[in-house]
Design goal:
Length: about 450
Amino acid sequence: MKDINLLNKSELLENDKNHLWHPFTQMKEWAQTEPLIIVEGEGNYLIDIDGNRYLDGVSSLWANIHGHKRKEINQAISGQLQKISHTTLLGLTHPNAVILAQNISQIAPGNLKWVFYSESGSTAVEIALKMAFQYWQNSGKVKKTGFVCLGEGYHGDTIGAVSVGGIDLFHNIYSPLLFKSYKVPSPYLYCKKHNIPLDNGAEFCADEVKKLLEKHHEKIAAFIIEPLIQGAGGMLPFPPGYLNKVRQYCSQYDVLLIADEVAVGFGHTGTMFACEKENVEPDILCLGKGLTGGYLPLSATLASDKIFDAFWGDYDQLNSFFHGHTFTGNPLACAAALASLDIFGKDQTLKNLPAKINALKEGLDALSKLDFVGDVRQCGLMAGVEIFEDKSRQTPFPLKRRTGHKICLDVRNHGLILRNLGDVIVFMPPLSITCDEITHMIESLEKSIRKICK
Ligand SMILES: Cc1ncc(COP(=O)(O)O)c(C=O)c1O
C-alpha cells in the first residue's frame, strides 16, 4: 500500500483514472481530460495541487455555507475528535445530537419539533417518505400510500427518492424499479408553456395540484416539493404564492406536505428556510448539505407533533419507526452543525445577504443581454443561466457539443469553479461570498460564454 503523502501528481492522476468511478460522470469523457486535484480550501476558494486558487462558485455541490477552513467549525470537529468520533443513537444518546436537535427545531419553520438524523439528502428524503407512509398506516387510513411530486423535481438518487423524481434523464432508466407516483407539472415550465408571466402563475399552476388532490386524495399520503425553486431540474423558480397554495390544498385534502430543503435550506434563498418566505409550515422537512456548513455528511428529517404522535404507543403495538443508520447523528458531524449555526449569528450571515443577492441580480441582468443567453433565473443566491444556440427561438445547442460543460471547464482559466446542468450554468456560491467575488463570477462566465459559444 502506497503512503498517500508520497504520491505525486501524475501518480494521483493515473490512479484516479484506473480506480475511481466518479458520480454523474461519463467516464470515457473523464478519461480524456486532466481533472483538477483539489488539495485545500480557504474561505471561498479551492486550491489545487499546483497551488492555483479557484472561487468555489457551486459551494462544493451546494453544501458550503461560511467558506472553507473556518476555524470555528474545524475546532468544533477536532474538539469532538478528542472525545469520541462515533457512538450510536440506537439505544444511547449523546450531547451534540441532543443540543443540535433542540437548536434546529427552534429555528425550523412552524412547530417541527422532532429531528431524525441521517447522512445525506437522499436518506433524509427516504426517511420522510417512509415516515409519511407509516403515519397513515399507523393512523388507520391504510389506503393513503401514494406520493405526489413535480415534473423536473429532484430529491436524491436512492430508489425512493428517484421514485418521486421528475428528471427523465436521471430517472427514466430505473422506472421498472420504482414505485409509481403522481406528477404535476413543474410550475416554471408550465407557465412558460402557456405564456403566463411567472408572477401571475401561482393560481394557474396550483390548480393542477388541486385537481389531482380532489380526484386521488384518498390514495395519497404526501406531496413532496423543493420549496421556491427546483434546483437540479435546472434552477426553475416558482411563481410567487405557489408554495403557499400547495400548502392550502394539502391541508384541504388531508395530504401531508414534505418540504425538501436539502438544497435551499440554510440561507440560499435569502431566509434561513425557503418555506419562511411564504409562511408555510410543512408536516415534514428534509435538511442536508448546508446543515454542517458543508463540512461533514449529516442530514435531518424534521416532523411535527402530529406525525410523531402517530408512532407513539406500547412496544407490542409495533407502530415504532423501524428505521436507523449506523452513522445516524454522528457526533463529529453534529459538532460541525452546531458550530455552523453559531456562525450564522456571529457573522450576521442572513442580514448580509440582500446586498449580495442584489449584486447577483445586477450581474445576471447584464448576462441576459449576451447572445446565446436565453434565460436567467434567480432565487436568492441561487441562479441558472441558460444557453441556447438560437436565443430568439430558444433552440438548444446539439447535445454532442457539450456547450455547458465546456463553458464550465473554461471558467477555470479565470479562477472559478462552476457546474452545469445540461446547458444551464449554475451559480450557487457559499453565503460568505463577497459582492466583488460575485462580479468576478459574472465577468468570468461572460468571457467563457463569448469564447465557447461563438
Ligand atoms: C432538493 C434535493 N434533495 C435531495 C438531494 C440529495 O442530496 P444528497 O446528494 O446529499 O443525497 C439533493 C441533492 O442535490 C437536492 O438538491
